[in-house]
Amino acid sequence: MYKIALILVSIIGLMAGCTPSEAPVDTLQQVDLNQDQTQTIKELEEENQQLQEQITQLQVDVNSEEIRNNLRETLNMTFKLIAAMESGDTAYMNSISSPNVEMSQDNKQFIITKEDQSYEVNFISGLAWNEFEFRGYDQTDSNHFKLFVAHYNYTEGSEGHAAYEFSFVRSSEGEWLFDGYIS
Length: 183
Hints:
Blueprint: H1 2-18, H2 23-87, H3 90-96, E1 101-104, E2 109-114, E3 117-122, E4 132-141, E5 144-153, E6 160-170, E7 176-182
Antiparallel strand pairs: 1-2, 2-3, 4-5, 5-6, 6-7
């Protein structure tokens, strides 16, 4: 029995001596490395979120700038078009009109054709510029733009107002073209 106890103590001693003493240190280093990696991942996720927000803001800024430019261009065209209708400048009206717009100079009308339907609208005339009011716009996509303008008549006996919707389409060259109006 004494021999068995001695053999057991010897085996336990050998096993204890053969166990690597660096294992706890490796485990601590591994835990520290995992914590460092976790912290790095968190920092990268935060940076990614900030970059995504910056990209979103840049897209909004670009779209806002594009809309401002489109609004400026079409609003200027609308005022020039109204002046051309008043003065009878058919050359200008033809130069900015889309293929959907024909002009009847004799009747002082536009003939607007859309989706196999057409309608006629008279040239706008006899309006004072100080009676116009910008009402809004709608850009349905990058190639279609609508302007909403109102005319208020304050002349005694003929008071009233009219609302106009001017439509524009973008040409293949990137220029805006007059595509009709309704009142």
